[in-house]
Amino acid sequence: MGTVVDFPSGRSAPGPVAGEGLTHVQLTWVEKKIEYRIRFGSIAREKVIDRRRRIVSFRPGDIFTFVRWAANDFGTIISRVDIVRAVAEGEAHQTLPFVRPGGAILLTAQDWPRVERVLQTIDGIEQLGIDPAKVSPDHWRHVHNRMTVGQAPRNYTLDLHRAYLLRQRIQP
Length: 172
Description:
This protein is an alpha+beta fold. Helix content is 24%, strand content 35%.
């Protein structure tokens, strides 16, 4: 997970301010009931609302993973993961629950087997020593598309990552 700041009770980081251009994600944790969390991403700001809720914010262009899980007395009712690129003010975007204003959704998966596969993909990238937030957005779209049609995505490699970084240096 990206940088997380834990504040003692009663203290909080600066919160969301309208017009600041950040993407805000509301996180919730209720033991054995709700877990909305960030798997990776560079958190620009965090506001603690109470012991169960907080809001984290991302700068435009930052990529993060938002994992949502909820259960009731009968078992899991939602299991979902979204890899999202935070958007700049006025930029076209898709809406996503608990994400304001929304973002460019690069990958989405529902149901535990698919969510688990995405989390394993993230783990594999981290094992290469690569920050998943710095991975090519095209790779996350590729993973989404392949999973959607029931095929295994190609692995992200150090060579693919180097090529992506080089392209970033020469693009205007």
